[in-house]
């Protein structure tokens, strides 16, 4: 039996991936998120799909690294992270002093993966998937002078920095833990609740076009299938990028090795216990 932790699995793409994992029949899925009511509803859906596995819910607030730290005690060999927000707000710090978008999309994810990696490394078929913007984001040139975007914050810079940092940070983890398969995926356009935090006018526009996107179920099936078939025998620390169909993106990395090392070092300096 395999065990999966899906952070952000109470709705959207995370829920779609959780459902796809339950459909395999050999995975016990733990959903993590802030909304307990929605989380328990998803657990019921997972149980209906695969009643022979024990599915569960854990509460976590990814705006708080202490809450994320507590989640790291979950026993699993599969870790999926999809937590995030879509807003037009400016730089907005959390209690940890990080911008909300950057903390949800990057810092909380890398923090959790780094804390869980030592234990996961000894498990069979250990895999980590972060769903954000693989191959889609641009470079963020201010990573050395304004790493936290306090001076140069914009929606575009926040999006690019999150993706740029994700590739640098998770590639660093892949190199440190070569028995774990690490992947970063871009989901494409999905009919989910993405954008619900946007101003009413923009949210209305999003809702009009969202039905044109693929369902969370289809998205979850494609991304999970692509992730789970990545080779792990003789694995040497390679870090994978996946497109909307779960296929490997070749030559999608936008950072140099030197940039990667700077970003990873600055990231660890942001964490309270590294």
Low-pLDDT stretches are: 200-209
- Please count the helical segments: 8
**Secondary-structure element string:** EHEHEHEHEHEEHEHEH
Using the alpha-carbon principal axes, give the shape. globular
Largest sheet composition: 7 strands, parallel
- Beginning-to-end CA distance, first to last residue: 33 Å
- Helix content percent band: 40-55%
pLDDT averaged over residues: 90
Number of strands: 9
What is the strand arrangement across the widest sheet? 3-2-1-4-5-6-9
Radius of gyration: 17 Å
Structural class: alpha/beta
Provide the β-strand percentage band: 5-15%
Structure at a glance:
With 274 residues, the chain is α/β, with parallel strands linked by helices.
Task: Offer a few descriptive terms.
42% helix, 9 strands, alpha/beta, 8 helices, 274 residues
Give the arrangement of secondary structure elements:
Blueprint: E1 2-7, H1 12-24, E2 27-33, H2 36-49, E3 56-59, H3 65-71, E4 78-81, H4 100-120, E5 127-131, H5 155-176, E6 181-185, E7 190-191, H6 200-209, E8 214-215, H7 216-228, E9 239-242, H8 257-270
Parallel strand pairs: 1-2, 1-4, 2-3, 4-5, 5-6, 6-9, 7-8
Helix pairs in contact: 1-2, 1-7, 3-4, 4-5, 5-8
Can you describe what's shown?
- The protein is of the alpha/beta class.
- Helix content is 42%, strand content 14%.
- It has eight helices and nine strands.
- It has helices spanning 12-24, 36-49, 65-71, 100-120, 155-176, 200-209, 216-228, 257-270, and strands at residues 2-7, 27-33, 56-59, 78-81, 127-131, 181-185, 190-191, 214-215, 239-242.
- A seven-stranded parallel beta sheet has the order 3-2-1-4-5-6-9, with helices on both faces. It has a two-stranded parallel ribbon with strand order 7-8.
- Strand 1, helix 1 (12-24) and strand 2 form a beta-alpha-beta unit.
- Helix 1 runs parallel beside helix 2.
- The longest helix has 22 residues, at 155-176.
- The protein is globular, with a radius of gyration of 17 Å.
- The chain starts with a strand and ends with a helix.
- Residues 200-209 have low confidence and may be disordered.
